[in-house]
Specification:
The chain is mainly beta. It has 2 helices and 13 strands; from the N terminus they run ββααβββββββββββ. Strands 1, 2, 9, 10, 11, 12 and 13 form a 7-stranded antiparallel sheet that branches. It has a 6-stranded antiparallel barrel with strand order 3-4-5-8-7-6. Helix 1 packs across helix 2. The longest helix is centred in the N-terminal third of the chain and has 8 residues. It is globular and about 45 Å long. It starts with 15 loop residues before the first strand and ends with a strand.
């Protein structure tokens, strides 16, 4: 399984980052005129990833026992990789806790060792399938983000945003100052949102891009 994982962070304390809009799940439900339960069901594959060094966001992707997230969550500040089995995944709307397992998992490079943030990805396995969620679909290949796409990001938490978890509505855009990435976005969250994936709607569920 290969995926494109978005690494997003910001220090701003506001509901609008650049041209993105940060909303609580209730605000999202009201804005789209749908029940709150429906919103929670749609994004139940997202959850909190807790590792010894960092806490971020991960999502069940492709299969009920596979997560996608960012590689830097698995490294400490000295770029030493932590034991993956010391990390846990907690779905947003479940009291269950799942342990990550090293077998079959793939973690990208530490950001300190590479200037290319496209290496900041991880596909990891958990000890058992997550029940009651619809995994997000893996992206089409080759991966190509339409700059006209409206993107959705679901983040488990953030230090500077009180209504966690939350949803970010944003768009893909050019960012020429990232020479190693052809397409970026205006999606931003604070710490805790690292590992959140860009999502686009499908007829039955959501898909990573």
């Amino acid at each position: 399984v290969v995926v494109s994982v978005l690494v997003i962070s910001s220090s701003a304390d506001a509901h609008v980052f650049a041209t993105s809009k940060v909303m609580s799940f209730s605000d999202y439900a009201n804005a789209n005129h749908i029940p709150l339960k429906s919103v929670k069901d749609q994004f139940s594959a997202s959850g909190k990833l807790v590792c010894p060094a960092y806490t971020g966001t991960a999502q069940v992707t492709g299969s009920a026992n596979i997560l996608t997230t960012s590689a830097h969550l698995f490294y400490d500040k000295s770029c030493k990789q932590v034991a993956i089995e010391r990390c846990t995944f907690e779905p947003l709307f479940s009291h269950e806790k799942y342990h990550l397992v090293p077998k079959g998992s793939h973690i990208g490079l530490c950001l300190i060792e590479t200037p290319n943030t496209s290496d900041d990805w991880a596909v990891v396995y958990i000890d058992r399938p997550v029940k009651g969620v619809t995994p997000y679909k893996i992206p089409d290949f080759p991966v190509s983000t339409d700059l006209n796409n409206n993107l959705t990001v679901v983040a488990a938490s953030a230090r500077n945003i009180s209504h966690s978890p939350f949803i970010v509505k944003c768009r893909a855009r050019d960012q020429g100052y990232y020479p190693n990435i052809d397409e970026m976005d205006d999606c931003s969250t604070d710490s805790g949102g690292s590992g959140s994936a860009q999502l686009v709607p499908e007829p039955r569920g959501w898909k990573l891009v």
